[in-house]
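Anyone opening a protein record will find just a pair of labelled lines. A complete record is shown below as an example.
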Amino acid sequence: MRRTFLAGIALIAVSTLPVGVTQAQTMTDLSVFSQANDNSNMVIDHEGWSVILRGIVLNVPPMDRMPERDRPVLTGTRINTASTSRYRHEGNRVVYHVLNDEYRDAITYMREDLEALPDQFGGLARLSRDEQLAYWFNLYNVTIIEQTMLNYPVHWINRMEAHGTDDNVFDAKILTVEGQRLSLNDIRHGIVYANWDDPRVMYGFFKGSVGSPELRRSAYTGDAIWQQLDSTAREFVNSLRGVEVNNRELRVSEAYDEARVLFPDFEADLRTHLRQYANDETAEQIDIDRPVSAQVSDWQIADMINGSRRCTGVAGPSTMSSFAFDSGPQDQPTGVVANCASLPPNAAILLTAVRARRIELINEGRYGEVFTNDLPTIDPDLPAGNADDNAEDNAEDNDGESN
């Protein structure tokens, strides 16, 4: 299993050189990550991470910018554990509640291998800026997914402690790269925001929550990094969790305030940036002369069941068979998503909203604008090439922009 997934992490045109920074260091020196070689022909192959993402991420199409106001209706119980967020039907979701041991192990192996990778070729300074950026995004995202997986079920991501520590997950020094002990905030603020001044870099970080820029179903890669960030930026800016509806002020995500260093003249630069990605409806909100308030947030977990419980039946956690709308033969596993004894009501509400929105997009002739796999149906034991074929076979329509 490990070989299947980790085959995707490889370095092309790389020779192993001595590492100048040792594990013995106790103080973090982020300056070691400030150098790059833009003439480098070294390329990191992140296909192994893409294979995992295609197996664990539910693609949610762009919604209609109408906030969800009523409480979700769960029949058969007075206990409501579904999300009440205005943004509860926005952004891709991770199917934590049904991850089997193979996927859990693969996620941990991927994080470990990404941590160790720079030591195999003499350090990140030998890579181009774009290759470095893809590396940091993928390491950050696999780490927050692993931490959420280890703490699951969990409801509020911003209150989550790093597994095995008393420290907040974003502040804990849980990674070691080139001998430097790093936190997730070190990567985001101390490395990426400090060395890249393009505002688009803020969209590469999935923070595990509904209010975050969404998690793509493919890894970031150096050769496509800016197109990928453009796509993620477009989804976020045109969502309510990115730019809210308000008559008195331009309400935007707190993620923009956290990335304020990327917008020197904050209000003017932010409006200019938002207009680059706004559709007509969002642009109307941006163009009205109102003060900017960067306070929109939702730290609830970006999963399918709001971190309420695992998917279990009478005999305990179900085996991985098929949870997709168009499942394969019942006696053959078709992917990571489980055929639970009963679909958790929270998940059913989300899937109903996803289905309804896809029907709406079809009726509007816009279905090709989104990647339309209902749920991941990739056999994790297939080689990467066959997994790609499997994904294509299960896609109803992938003519448009894909996440």
